Amino acid sequence: MVIKKEFINTLFCIGVLLVITGCTSSKKAPPSSTTPNTVLISSEDLKALKQSANEWKTVEPKVNDLLELEGQLSKLTTRLKAIDETNTAGTNNAQTTTATESILKSDQAFFAIQVAAFNSKTKLNTALANLKRKIPTFFSNNIAVNVETKVIKTNTFYRLKLGAYKTNKQATTACEALKQQKINCFVTYYTREKPQPTL
């Protein structure tokens, strides 16, 4: 009977120990073969990823430069559109007043509009006659016509220039009016040499 009592006590203790051990083991995290953030890839995929990363490192500065240039180009395009809209509005008014503004005393003129350059006076006079027929309103107020003779190496050139303008802005406005009439031109300095008719 004493043995039975001890046996029951021993079984009771073992049961209590098993219950306690079971409770504490259930609180522990079950061991897992992989952590949740781990991704398994093949060695070939890893090699390809490393190669892509190296390629990106070499290309990244160039891509950043291109993105910066794209931003600057976008800003420049916006500014050019604004300038173009301003010039278009100003050119409509400039066409009617160009001829009267261009007639200045020769000693006050610093700028002119160059419309052509030729290697002979005959070609220059022919071009001038054609211009007078093409844009008679520009010549209607006796606009100044002058020529600059320029020797470059062994060749002589005759630069046909129109107008005598006090300011660069006046010359630019007149040149823009000519461009509207499909005449190529650019602003240059005024010369007093008049075209001589060819014999």
UniProtKB/TrEMBL annotation:
Coiled coil (residue ranges): none
All residue ranges annotated as the SPOR domain in the record: 105-194
Protein name, entry field: SPOR domain-containing protein
